[in-house]
């Protein structure tokens, strides 16, 4: 992208995490292309990027749709490093996937080394109310514990699909502004300190 | 150009060569054909791409390494852009022995390393040391082959022929160069012989390597020798044989299985073939019923191929059954082919069936013939139908009028009756428009071989005859119904005799009919018929147009003849005393020009300009002459019809106090009207001659008619004559009584010129005369002031003449009488001076000369009377004053 001379709108990198089959790709495709994919096909790693209007400002969203399968767990670290915000998805019809969110949350915090990283807990497949295994309260409690919002979505009915992406982007944007301030002020000092530390090491 | 494609999503975003990638985005092409380019990281992957939708393409990655864009190119949107990147990596290197989903460029399997002695580099050098140029003149290889059989010019070949080589490579090289080349070659050969050592030196590395390898080989062999014995290959051979045997055993089993399967299949085939044959009659029946002739034909051809040479009686019986069915089908199809109406496509299909069935008919030709028969029959049918409606009793002729509903507005035609010939012509035009193209198309298909029928000799001529015949029939029918006199008697009998309606009636329809015929003509032109055929119609059209024009003119003539005078004078405008008559005349002509121009004059596709035709022009001139003559006659009638009407409105004679003769009173009571009429007609004449005719000429010119000066000039001459005669009539009517009254009035009261009554005033007859003149003057002014100059001087002239006559008749003048006469004449002369011509003045002078001369006192007296009189009659003088 760097070869383009025009000024690019702000780029927000979102990473979809969660167990296999919870609907990460479905949410992504619904958000990107208004399309609901019925058949399941495990994802390895998909990239999507498009321009959208976020509160009147043109921004680019870059979505990295990751593999939920355990086979790929080892390479997650690499992905997470580049993410600026995370949608941690589970299926409300599958308790196991809800339990797995804990592990994802920990891995993200470990990789990013930042407790306030923009993060949304998303309970997908909320159209399948009759098959619900994870109660709303249960999930909400966990979100509260982590200090993150909890949203229930349906990639099939497109309920709250836009909301989760836009909410996350707003958080990322707010977060970036804050960082800019700090880097303008004492940020430099921090860097210097770090550098010094490195030297000592 | 639509929006360019943009790739916004990749699934997955990385992978080894051969990975299936879902490419998502916008405007990725409207169809598979629209997608014309796809590169992944710069590698063209279009071949393996599968277009799914405008938002999705499936692709297989090629030999990519590293990150890069996915660029989609479409015909509709051009080269696109990419938001996301794909990362390609090799899981393992791909070699010649490894299967791969994609084509991987092989690296050179062995390298020559430092011992480079590549044969290709050696080859490129010319053995003579000459530059190898691309000589323009090349000896063809075929020739070289015949010159040097079994040889070639390849320097490395066993069959190398030096002469071939030279001819091939150095044909254009000069002798000197060749000599130099020979020297070079010799030196090189010499050098090689001498330089074996130096060659060894140069390639010492390789030679040492070879020696090392040989030594190695020998050592290994010696080590192996005790292990495997003297003949190591024997053991190998045995192993190979054994494995071959094993393999064969395995394979034989498979082969025998395959054989068995084949046999079963064959048996099944034979069975199904028999079943096919025996079921075929039923199948044919069923398919014929369903109309699936294609299937029947297919089956028939198949069965013929399979069984036509069979000798088995049962097969023959079955085959006969099939043949019987097919023959029936052929006859049925052939009948269908000739049953009209039928579309060309249907006919073509039927012909194809018949051809495929090897029908014994000349089906295509039959189709053409049946079509032409059908057209002719339809013509006849239409004719007969309309003939049956064409009864003198108009009440039977209603119906079928709906098409002409637009004529319902025409008031003077009975709306329910449309003449049979009109309907007939119209219908026959539609009929030919509908049916003829099909005939032509079938014919074209027949001769172009589209019908897959062999065209028999002579058919061209016959076909042309058929086509011409149809068109001729059509034309003759139209002629017979509209312009029967263009056909000779025999044909008129043949093509019928519908009653021709009245001219006024047909005039309404003619433009429409002309249009119908033209439409038919255009259809024929579109078919690209030979000129010969088109010319027949073209001729008909020309005749029809002339006829139409003629009818139009005739109709106008008739209408002009019926023009009536309203006698309402139109006071506005430049021309006074003009009634609506000339304008009506002009409007009629204008209307006619419009219609003629619209319908007849305009030339359409492949038509001759009507007025370029001599006959048409002559006809038109004649008709125009008729029109103008008709108008002339109208005017003439108006001016001569003394007994037009006997309306007795109280127009009082101005000759009050004059004892008038009885016959004059009788006619006089009518005269004002009659005279007015004369005047009006006269001014109409003038107006027509001076203005309307020019306008007519102009209109004709605007309408695109050629110059029509001759008839117009004729009309002008005619009008001039008419004018003169009217004027004469009017003058006669006016001046006769006026002049006639002078003499009686002069001698009224036993007056005589020798009486000695002292003159105190002019005599009453002069006053009467003046008053009469004023009366005439006012009459003319009332109707048309412009006529004053034409009429009044003439009247004055006759008055003067009469005066002179009377004076010269006087035998003796007394002195007083002379004074009186002189005063009278002078006053009259003075008063009428405004309108007196030279001739009139002369008459006055001569009258004066007759009167004996006066002495001085008398002259003064005369002048006195004159002055008094002028003063007293100021108003009268004013009346007769000529306006400048």
Automatic annotation (TrEMBL), chain A:
<keyword id="KW-0636">Prenylation</keyword>
<dbReference type="InterPro" id="IPR005225">
    <property type="entry name" value="Small_GTP-bd"/>
</dbReference>
<dbReference type="GO" id="GO:0003925">
    <property type="term" value="F:G protein activity"/>
</dbReference>
<keyword id="KW-0449">Lipoprotein</keyword>
<keyword id="KW-1003">Cell membrane</keyword>
<feature type="region of interest" description="Disordered">
    <location>
        <begin position="176"/>
        <end position="201"/>
    </location>
</feature>
<dbReference type="Pfam" id="PF00071">
    <property type="entry name" value="Ras"/>
</dbReference>
<dbReference type="InterPro" id="IPR020849">
    <property type="entry name" value="Small_GTPase_Ras-type"/>
</dbReference>
<feature type="compositionally biased region" description="Basic residues">
    <location>
        <begin position="189"/>
        <end position="201"/>
    </location>
</feature>
<keyword id="KW-0342">GTP-binding</keyword>
<dbReference type="GO" id="GO:0007165">
    <property type="term" value="P:signal transduction"/>
</dbReference>
<dbReference type="InterPro" id="IPR027417">
    <property type="entry name" value="P-loop_NTPase"/>
</dbReference>
<keyword id="KW-0488">Methylation</keyword>
<keyword id="KW-0472">Membrane</keyword>
<dbReference type="GO" id="GO:0005525">
    <property type="term" value="F:GTP binding"/>
</dbReference>
<keyword id="KW-0378">Hydrolase</keyword>
<keyword id="KW-0547">Nucleotide-binding</keyword>
<dbReference type="InterPro" id="IPR001806">
    <property type="entry name" value="Small_GTPase"/>
</dbReference>
<comment type="similarity">
    <text>Belongs to the small GTPase superfamily. Ras family.</text>
</comment>
<dbReference type="GO" id="GO:0005886">
    <property type="term" value="C:plasma membrane"/>
</dbReference>
<protein>
    <recommendedName>
        <fullName>small monomeric GTPase</fullName>
        <ecNumber>3.6.5.2</ecNumber>
    </recommendedName>
</protein>
Automatic annotation (TrEMBL), chain B:
<keyword id="KW-0653">Protein transport</keyword>
<comment type="function">
    <text>Component of the exocyst complex involved in the docking of exocytic vesicles with fusion sites on the plasma membrane.</text>
</comment>
<dbReference type="GO" id="GO:0015031">
    <property type="term" value="P:protein transport"/>
</dbReference>
<dbReference type="InterPro" id="IPR042044">
    <property type="entry name" value="EXOC6PINT-1/Sec15/Tip20_C_dom2"/>
</dbReference>
<dbReference type="Pfam" id="PF01833">
    <property type="entry name" value="TIG"/>
</dbReference>
<keyword id="KW-0268">Exocytosis</keyword>
<keyword id="KW-0813">Transport</keyword>
<dbReference type="InterPro" id="IPR013783">
    <property type="entry name" value="Ig-like_fold"/>
</dbReference>
<dbReference type="GO" id="GO:0048468">
    <property type="term" value="P:cell development"/>
</dbReference>
<dbReference type="GO" id="GO:0048731">
    <property type="term" value="P:system development"/>
</dbReference>
<dbReference type="InterPro" id="IPR039481">
    <property type="entry name" value="EXOC2/Sec5_N_dom"/>
</dbReference>
<dbReference type="InterPro" id="IPR002909">
    <property type="entry name" value="IPT_dom"/>
</dbReference>
<comment type="similarity">
    <text>Belongs to the SEC5 family.</text>
</comment>
<feature type="domain" description="IPT/TIG">
    <location>
        <begin position="5"/>
        <end position="86"/>
    </location>
</feature>
<dbReference type="GO" id="GO:0006893">
    <property type="term" value="P:Golgi to plasma membrane transport"/>
</dbReference>
<dbReference type="InterPro" id="IPR029175">
    <property type="entry name" value="EXOC2/Sec5"/>
</dbReference>
<dbReference type="GO" id="GO:0000145">
    <property type="term" value="C:exocyst"/>
</dbReference>
<comment type="subunit">
    <text>Component of the exocyst complex.</text>
</comment>
<protein>
    <recommendedName>
        <fullName>Exocyst complex component 2</fullName>
    </recommendedName>
</protein>
<dbReference type="InterPro" id="IPR014756">
    <property type="entry name" value="Ig_E-set"/>
</dbReference>
<dbReference type="GO" id="GO:0006887">
    <property type="term" value="P:exocytosis"/>
</dbReference>
<feature type="domain" description="Exocyst complex component EXOC2/Sec5 N-terminal">
    <location>
        <begin position="125"/>
        <end position="880"/>
    </location>
</feature>
């Amino acid at each position: 992208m760097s070869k383009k001379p025009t000024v690019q709108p702000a780029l927000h990198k979102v990473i979809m995490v969660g167990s296999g089959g919870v609907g990460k790709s479905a949410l992504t495709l619904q958000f990107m292309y208004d399309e609901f994919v019925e058949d399941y096909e495990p994802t390895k790693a998909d990239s999507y990027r498009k321009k959208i209007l976020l509160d009147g400002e043109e921004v680019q969203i870059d979505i990295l749709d990751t593999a939920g399968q355990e086979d790929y767990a080892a390479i997650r670290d690499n992905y997470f490093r580049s993410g600026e915000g995370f949608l941690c998805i589970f299926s409300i019809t599958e308790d196991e996937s809800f339990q797995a969110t804990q592990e994802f949350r920990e891995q993200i915090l470990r990789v990013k080394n930042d407790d306030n990283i923009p993060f949304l807990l998303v309970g997908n497949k909320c159209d399948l109310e009759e098959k619900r295994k994870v109660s709303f309260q249960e999930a909400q409690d966990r979100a509260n514990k982590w200090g993150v919002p909890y949203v229930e979505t349906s990639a099939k009915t497109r309920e709250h699909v836009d909301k989760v992406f836009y909410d996350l982007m707003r958080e990322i944007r707010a977060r970036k502004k804050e960082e800019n301030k700090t880097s303008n002020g004492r940020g430099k000092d921090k860097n210097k300190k770090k550098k010094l530390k490195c030297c000592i090491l | 150009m639509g929006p360019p494609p943009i790739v916004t999503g990749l699934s997955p975003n990385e992978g080894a060569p051969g990975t299936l990638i879902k490419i998502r985005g916008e405007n990725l092409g409207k169809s598979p054909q629209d997608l014309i380019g796809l590169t992944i990281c710069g590698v063209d992957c279009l071949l393996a791409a599968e277009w799914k939708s405008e938002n999705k393409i499936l692709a297989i990655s090629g030999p990519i390494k590293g990150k890069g864009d996915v660029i989609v190119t479409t015909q509709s949107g051009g080269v696109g852009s990419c938001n996301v990147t794909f990362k390609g990596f090799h899981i393992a290197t791909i070699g010649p022995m490894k299967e791969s989903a994609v084509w991987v460029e092989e690296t050179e399997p062995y390298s020559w390393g430092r011992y480079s002695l590549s044969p290709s580099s050696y080859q490129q050098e010319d053995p003579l040391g000459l530059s190898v140029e691309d000589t323009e003149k090349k000896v063809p290889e075929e020739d070289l082959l015949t010159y040097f059989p079994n040889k070639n010019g390849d320097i490395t070949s066993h069959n190398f022929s030096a002469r071939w080589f030279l001819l091939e490579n150095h044909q254009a090289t000069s002798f000197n160069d060749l000599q130099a080349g020979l020297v070079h070659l010799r030196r090189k050969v010499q050098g090689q012989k001498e330089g074996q050592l130096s060659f060894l030196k140069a390639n010492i590395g390789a030679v040492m390597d070879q020696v090392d390898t040989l030594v190695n080989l020998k050592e290994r062999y010696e080590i192996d020798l005790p292990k495997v014995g003297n003949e190591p290959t024997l053991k190998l051979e045995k192993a190979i044989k054994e494995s071959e045997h094993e393999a064969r055993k395995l394979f034989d089993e498979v082969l025998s299985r395959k054989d068995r399967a084949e046999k079963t299949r064959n048996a099944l085939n034979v069975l199904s073939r028999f079943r096919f044959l025996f079921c075929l009659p039923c199948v044919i029946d069923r398919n014929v019923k369903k109309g699936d002739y294609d299937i029947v034909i297919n089956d028939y051809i198949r069965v013929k191929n399979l069984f036509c040479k069979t000798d088995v009686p049962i097969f023959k019986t079955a085959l006969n059954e099939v043949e019987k069915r097919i023959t029936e089908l052929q006859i049925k199809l052939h009948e269908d082919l000739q049953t009209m109406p039928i579309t060309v496509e249907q006919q073509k299909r039927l012909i194809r069936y018949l051809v495929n069935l090897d029908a014994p008919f000349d089906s295509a030709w039959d189709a053409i013939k049946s079509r032409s028969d059908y057209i002719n029959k339809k013509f006849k049918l239409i004719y007969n139908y309309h003939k049956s409606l064409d009864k003198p009793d108009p009440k039977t002729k209603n119906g079928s009028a709906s098409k002409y509903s637009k004529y319902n507005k025409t008031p003077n035609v009975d709306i329910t009756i449309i003449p049979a010939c009109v309907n007939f012509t119209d219908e026959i035009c539609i009929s030919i428009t509908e049916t003829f193209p099909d005939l032509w198309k079938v014919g074209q298909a027949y001769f172009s071989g589209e019908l897959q029928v062999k065209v028999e000799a002579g058919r061209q001529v016959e076909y042309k005859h058929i086509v011409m015949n149809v068109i001729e029939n059509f034309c003759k029918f139209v002629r017979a119904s509209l312009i029967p006199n263009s056909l000779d008697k025999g044909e008129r009998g043949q093509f019928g005799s519908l009653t021709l309606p009245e001219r006024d009636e047909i005039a309404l329809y003619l433009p429409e009919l002309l249009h119908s015929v033209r439409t038919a003509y255009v259809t024929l032109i579109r078919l690209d018929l030979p000129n010969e055929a088109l010319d027949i119609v073209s001729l008909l059209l020309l005749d029809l147009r002339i006829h139409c024009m003629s009818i139009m003119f005739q109709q106008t003539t008739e209408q002009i003849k019926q023009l009536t005078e309203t006698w309402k004078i139109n006071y506005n405008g430049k021309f006074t005393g003009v009634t609506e008559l000339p304008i009506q005349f002009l409007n009629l002509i204008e209307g006619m020009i419009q219609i003629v121009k619209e319908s007849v004059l305009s030339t359409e596709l492949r038509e001759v300009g009507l007025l370029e035709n001599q006959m048409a022009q002559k006809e038109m001139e004649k008709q125009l002459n008729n029109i103008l003559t008709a108008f002339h006659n109208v005017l003439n009638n108006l001016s001569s019809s003394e007994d037009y009407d006997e309306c007795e409105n109280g127009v009082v004679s101005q000759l009050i106090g004059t004892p008038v003769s009885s016959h004059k009173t009788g006619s006089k009571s009518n005269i004002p009207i009659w005279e007015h009429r004369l005047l009006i007609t006269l001014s109409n004449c003038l107006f027509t001659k001076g203005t309307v005719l020019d306008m007519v000429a102009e209109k004709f010119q605007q309408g695109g008619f050629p110059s029509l000066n001759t008839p117009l000039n004729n009309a002008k001459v005619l009008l001039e004559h008419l004018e003169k005669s009217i004027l004469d009539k009017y003058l006669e009517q006016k001046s006769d009584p006026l002049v006639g009254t002078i003499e009686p009035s002069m001698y009224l009261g036993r007056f005589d010129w020798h009486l000695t009554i002292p003159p105190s005033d002019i005599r009453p007859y002069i006053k009467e005369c003046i008053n009469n003149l004023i009366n005439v003057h006012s009459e003319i002014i009332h109707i048309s002031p412009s006529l004053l100059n034409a009429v009044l001087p003439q009247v004055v002239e006759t008055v003067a003449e009469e005066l002179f006559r009377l004076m010269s008749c006087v035998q003796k003048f007394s002195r007083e009488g002379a004074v009186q006469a002189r005063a009278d004449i002078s006053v009259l002369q003075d008063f009428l001076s405004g309108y007196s011509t030279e001739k009139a003045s002369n008459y006055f002078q001569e009258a004066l000369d007759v009167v004996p001369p006066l002495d001085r006192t008398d002259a003064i007296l005369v002048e006195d009377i004159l002055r008094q009189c002028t003063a007293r009659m100021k108003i009268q003088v004013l009346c007769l004053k000529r306006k400048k």
